[in-house]
């Protein structure tokens, strides 16, 4: 598994929205990073960088197209993605309105990080890869695995991909009567994904239980809660329930459903 980075400027906002919605990205031209890209590789997609003087000092001339060793800044968004298909060429199917971008790859989103500050001293290969991408045509460039933006990462669990992990109840003070049920293998990485969607970043776990099959356990708990809500005409939406949970309720419900809890949360 290889790691890469690419830069997307704010002029490509609409293309980025389309790409994220459809899980696809493309380039006008082939290049080394594209040719080497394989299923399972990880990519940092850096979007819309700025150089606040109060943080990084004087703006280098030509920023962000600067000389090697001078690229750092505040990214409006980093999207961490996993390639889900080897790179390919497709010249007939139109995805974006402004051009064909035939050199493509498919992906799934692992995590989104907003307002990311990238310093030269912290992740030098990531800084150089994003600088290179910004000065070319958004081309891919490899990075060192240790410069991946987060230490841990989450994966999306499914019936086919299920493993040891956590089922959690999550709350936010703005919606104090609502509780979300979810599952994860990395509770810190998953919490970060919720923080990116609400500016005040006040989501917090009410409780967590560690189980052998996190997805299966989550689905059993969700099914039970949906049935309860439907029976009692309680509002719910996907994994959110208009139920004010207490800390012990998730554990009690899991035990009632015969779910084995491996250790204390």
Characterize this entry briefly.
With 265 residues, the protein is an alpha+beta fold. The protein has seven helices and twelve strands. The chain folds into two domains: 3-147, ph1033 like fold, CATH 3.10.590.10; 165-256.
In the CATH scheme, the class of the largest domain would be Alpha Beta
Please name the CATH topology of the largest domain.
ph1033 like fold
- The N- and C-terminal alpha carbons lie at a distance of 32 Å
Q: How would you state the average pLDDT, rounded?
A: 90
Task: Give the tally of structural domains.
Answer: 2
Tell me the Rg in angstroms.
Answer: 21 Å
Q: Largest sheet, if any?
A: 7 strands, mixed
The CATH architecture designation of the largest domain is Roll
The CATH fourth-level homologous superfamily of the largest domain: ph1033 like domains
Strand percentage lies at 25-35%
How would the global form be characterised? elongated
Percent helix: 25-40%
Q: Poorly predicted ranges (pLDDT <50, ≥5 residues)?
A: none
Could you walk me through the main structural features you see in this protein, from its secondary elements to its overall organization?
With 265 residues, the chain is α+β, with helices and mostly antiparallel strands. The protein has 2 domains: 3-147, ph1033 like fold, CATH 3.10.590.10; 165-256. Helices cover 25% and strands 28% of the residues. It contains 7 helices and 12 strands. The chain has helices at residues 13-22, 32-36, 53-56, 124-135, 187-195, 214-232, 249-256, and strands at residues 3-8, 24-27, 42-50, 73-83, 88-89, 103-118, 141-142, 165-171, 179-184, 204-211, 236-237, 240-241. The strands form 2 sheets. Strands 1, 2, 3, 4, 5, 6 and 7 form a 7-stranded mixed β-sheet that branches. The chain has a 5-stranded antiparallel β-sheet with strand order 10-8-9-12-11, sandwiched between helices. A hairpin with a 7-residue loop joins strand 8 and strand 9 (179-184). The protein is elongated. The chain starts with a strand and ends in a 9-residue tail after the last helix. 31% of the residues are buried. The model has no long low-confidence stretch (mean pLDDT 90).
